[in-house]
# Entry
Amino acid sequence: MRTLLYALGPMLFDSLGIIVFAILLATGAGIVPAVIAGTVVAVAVVGYELARGHQVAALQWISLASVLFTAAATLLTGDPRFVMAKPTVVYLIVGMVMLRKGWLSRYIPPAQMALVGDVMDRFGMIWSALMFASAGLNLIVALFFTQWWPMFIGIFPLASKFGLFAVHIAVVHFVGQARLRRMESGSSAAVAAE
# Structure
């Protein structure tokens, strides 16, 4: 449970601009208010990190860039189809960033990295695959099922990420506990052999 809480905070904080955008859009607030609110929140997140002297995480920059890009395109063109296709581009970029080994390190206590770092790297690839799948699915819904897109974007991205997040944390916890038990039993056996 402690690992879940440790990872959940940064994950939500990193994606806060996109989350606000998706929630407002799904609740019928309209594209322009959703974009403006998402932009304000994404700018505030990055500003907060910079004011504290912390390094801004890649997902925070991506959240800010995607919301700003959407804001500019929507306000300049007034074309909602552009907004509908934008998540596809964002998911592709995020998926490529997630291919980088070790990007999940900030989401787990440093003491556990030696124990489950390899599992975290494998899940980095799974997260990347989810982003690429989301990109394709978003494009299909935006182009062929346009009327369903607001519901899709309000539900699927968050539900799929929280679902994978729950599986990810459960697997990392299970593997970590199993490895700890093996290490302890190996230490006990070594002591008994002496």
